[in-house]
Write a structure and sequence with these properties.
3-stranded mixed sheet; 40% helix; 3 strands; alpha+beta; 104 residues; single chain
């Protein structure tokens, strides 16, 4: 009998910061969704823990913020801009590309 995946997953940055987010929110990022797919052979699907060796804690925190921001404003028409510090823009774009998300 297969166990039901947890409602929450843990995203870990390359500098050891851990962020616990709702699984459904994390699925905005295609890479995370594929890593956590129970049908995959990835260890992340079993453990519910995704380690990103190329994303630091500051950037991953902003990614997590976006995941919830996206969920909150999913069906809204006039969505306010998300506050993104200019010094994080390039790193966030690279993270979005890696995660196959819509962080831009």
């Amino acid at each position: 009998m297969a166990s039901t995946p947890s409602e929450y997953v843990t995203l870990v940055s390359n500098d050891g910061f851990e962020f616990v987010v709702r699984r459904e929110s994390a699925y905005v990022a295609g890479t995370i969704k594929r890593m956590l797919d129970p049908a995959s052979a990835f260890a992340e699907a079993v453990s519910g823990r995704c380690v990103f060796e190329n994303i630091n804690g500051v950037v991953l925190e902003k990614v997590c913020e976006y995941l919830y921001y996206n969920e909150k404003h999913r069906n809204a028409k006039d969505v306010p801009d998300m506050d993104i510090p200019p010094e994080l823009c390039l790193e966030l774009l690279m993270a979005a590309d890696y995660l196959n998300g819509e962080l831009s």
